[in-house]
C-alpha cells in the first residue's frame, strides 16, 4: 500500500455496509442458500449484485452491491458446513463459527466499515484524540469531584490491525487488514456496530470493489445516509462516533438532558465521504444510447450520518435484538430527469 498521511481534520470515507442475510445460530440447518435468496431479492429491485466468494476462514461468504462512488453493500451469509475440500470436521467448523465476531448478530444491518485508516494514519489520529480527551475528562473529574459532577469520557479505542481475505469467484486472492474497536471492558471499548471498523487493502481495492459492476438498472448512485440508534449512555455513544469519524466535539456543546442523555431530534449529524467521485449520469443512457462507463466525474459525494435516540417500543425492540449502532440505511433512487441530483429513495 502506498503510504500517505491524513490531516487531523480529514473526513474518512465509508467503505461498505454489512447486511447479514441468515442467522448464524441456525446456519447448520439451512437447506437453501440465504445468500442466493438475497441476491434474487436485490436483483428484482434493480440492483446489480456481484457474487463475491468465500472468506478466508471458510465461515462466511458474500455478495456485493457496488455503487458508482465506491461504497458498497456487503450481503453476508454464514455457511452451513465446511467446504468439501477443507477436510475439516463439522464439529470443529461449528465451534469456530461460534467464535466468529458476528456470531451473536441477527439478520439485518450488523456493521459498517470505513476505508483504510492504516496507511493514512487515521486510526492513530483517532486513538490519540480519544486518549487525550479521556485524560482531560479524568482531570476535570478530579477537579469537580467535590460537586459530584459526572464527566463523560470517550470509550473508543481501536485495536491493532489483523489480516483477512477471501478468494473471488474468478480465483483471485484478496488480502486486507481490518482494525476493530476494542470490546467493552471496564471504562473502555464499544460493542460491534456501535462504532465502525476499518479496512485497509493489501491487494488492489478495485479487485475487492469492482466499480465496473456499479451501474444499476434502477440507476441508484449510492447511499444517501445511515442512521445509528442508541438507548444507553447516548452522550458517550455520540462522542465515540464523532471521534471514530474524526470529528471530535465538546460535550458541553450538545443538547443534553438532566439525565445526561442526548435530547432527541436535536442532535447534530455527522458526515462521511465516499471513496471515489461518483460518475455523472449520462442522459444518453435514458434513450438507450451510450455506454454506462463513459461518464463524466461528479464532485466528491458526502454521506450523512444521523444519530437517533431510542424513543418508542419499536426502537427498543430493535436494540434488544440487534444491539446499538447501525439501524437504517437510505439509498438514493434515480430521478426521472437524470441530469438532476438523485432523489432520496427507500430506507432499508
Automatic annotation (TrEMBL):
Transmembrane portions of the chain: none
InterPro entries, alphabetized: Glyas_Bleomycin-R_OHBP_Dase, Glyoxalase-like_dom
Region feature Disordered, mapped onto this chain: 275-294
Cleavable signal peptide: none
Domain Glyoxalase-like: 14-234
Protein name in the entry: Glyoxalase-like domain-containing protein
Organism: Pseudozyma antarctica (strain T-34) (Yeast)
Amino acid at each position: 500500500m502506498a503510504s500517505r498521511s491524513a490531516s487531523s481534520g480529514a473526513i474518512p470515507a465509508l467503505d461498505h455496509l454489512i447486511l447479514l442475510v441468515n442467522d448464524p445460530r441456525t446456519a447448520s440447518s439451512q437447506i437453501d442458500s440465504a445468500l442466493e435468496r438475497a441476491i434474487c431479492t436485490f436483483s428484482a429491485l434493480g440492483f446489480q449484485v456481484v457474487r463475491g466468494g468465500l472468506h478466508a476462514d471458510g465461515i462466511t461468504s458474500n455478495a456485493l452491491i457496488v455503487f458508482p462512488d465506491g461504497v458498497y453493500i456487503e450481503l453476508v451469509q454464514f455457511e452451513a458446513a465446511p467446504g468439501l475440500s477443507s477436510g475439516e470436521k463439522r464439529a470443529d467448523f461449528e465451534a469456530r463459527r461460534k467464535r466468529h465476531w458476528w456470531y451473536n448478530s441477527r439478520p439485518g444491518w450488523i456493521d459498517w466499515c470505513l476505508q483504510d485508516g492504516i496507511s493514512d494514519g487515521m486510526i492513530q489520529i483517532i486513538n490519540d484524540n480519544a486518549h487525550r480527551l479521556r485524560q482531560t475528562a479524568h482531570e476535570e473529574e478530579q477537579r469537580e469531584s467535590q460537586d459530584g459532577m459526572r464527566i463523560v469520557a470517550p470509550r473508543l479505542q481501536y485495536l491493532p490491525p489483523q489480516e483477512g481475505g477471501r478468494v473471488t469467484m474468478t480465483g483471485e486472492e484478496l488480502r486486507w487488514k481490518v482494525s476493530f474497536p476494542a470490546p467493552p471492558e471496564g471504562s473502555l471499548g464499544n460493542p460491534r456496530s456501535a462504532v465502525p471498523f476499518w479496512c485497509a487493502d493489501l491487494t488492489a481495492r478495485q479487485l475487492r470493489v469492482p466499480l465496473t459492476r456499479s451501474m444499476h438498472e434502477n440507476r441508484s448512485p449510492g447511499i444517501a445516509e445511515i442512521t445509528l440508534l442508541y438507548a444507553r449512555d447516548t452522550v458517550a455513544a455520540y462522542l465515540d462516533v464523532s471521534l471514530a469519524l474524526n470529528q471530535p466535539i465538546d460535550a458541553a456543546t450538545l443538547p443534553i438532558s438532566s439525565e445526561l442523555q442526548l435530547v432527541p431530534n436535536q442532535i447534530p449529524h455527522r458526515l462521511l465521504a465516499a471513496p471515489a467521485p461518483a460518475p455523472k449520469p449520462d442522459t444518453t443512457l435514458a434513450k438507450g444510447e451510450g455506454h454506462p462507463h463513459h461518464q463524466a466525474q461528479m464532485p466528491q459525494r458526502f454521506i450523512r450520518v444521523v444519530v437517533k435516540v431510542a424513543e418508542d417500543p419499536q426502537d427498543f425492540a430493535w436494540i434488544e435484538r440487534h444491539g446499538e449502532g447501525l439501524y437504517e440505511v437510505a439509498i438514493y433512487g434515480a430521478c426521472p430527469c437524470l441530469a438532476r441530483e438523485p432523489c432520496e429513495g427507500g430506507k432499508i
